[in-house]
Amino acid sequence: MARPTMAQDIERRIKELILERRLAPGDALPTEAELMELFEAGRVSVREALKSLQAVNVVEIRRGFGTFVGSLSLSPFAEGLAFRAAVRHRQGEPGLAELMKVREALEAGLVGAVAAGVPDEDLEVLRALVAKMEEEAGTGRVARGTDRAFHLALYASLDNHLLSEVLDAFWAAMDRVREDLDDGHQDPWVTCAQHREIVAAVAAADGVRAVKAMRTHFDGIRIRLEPSPVL
């Protein structure tokens, strides 16, 4: 295993500093000079570490103001997923299908918990989104934004911020790759029917039915991602 560079060691120590001081996004970090003194490191190594951490939203460098704890957004994670899937797809490997399988495992594993007790207000949001899908289906295609909003709203009752970010990251990655690679589109009325069934199952507090409905929804996506047979 390669030995970490000075900059990589400083990255690790800055993360530890954030944890030890219980800093939150937007909180100020020590100045560049203070970090140099604290870690007994040179300016070049400290700057390299800060730039690397900024790339993954751990820190935010504001020119003329200083360095702060970043948003900690998962957007770099989503970008990494999208790029990996795109590269593998173009090499003839099932990168896109693999990405969807991971998302399916998460959603099918969670929808049963949602069915155990979804608030009425969340059900109204979901029903409104299905109604919007049906309006869009009349134009020939359900908007990705509406589909995405449905899947995020579905898990709102779990009140898990990290979960919402992870699911949104997977969706963002799939959306990015779909635009680049064009995996085709499902019949919009089938899409509406599948989402309507998910809502019906959740409203009935039927976890088994909800999981089955989610699996059926992903079956349609999986079929569209399978490579066409060579004749």
From TrEMBL:
PROSITE patterns: HTH_GNTR
Coiled-coil blocks: none
Pfam families for the chain: FCD, GntR
Domain HTH gntR-type: 4-72
One function term, GO molecular function aspect: DNA binding
The name this protein goes by in its record: DNA-binding FadR family transcriptional regulator
Signal peptide residue numbers: none
Keywords assigned: DNA-binding, Transcription, Transcription regulation
InterPro entries documented for this protein: GntR_C, TF_FadR/GntR_C, Tscrpt_reg_HTH_GntR, WH-like_DNA-bd_sf, WH_DNA-bd_sf
SUPFAM superfamilies per the UniProt record, alphabetical: GntR ligand-binding domain-like, Winged helix' DNA-binding domain
PANTHER family: TRANSCRIPTIONAL REGULATOR, GNTR FAMILY, UXU OPERON TRANSCRIPTIONAL REGULATOR
Transmembrane segments: none
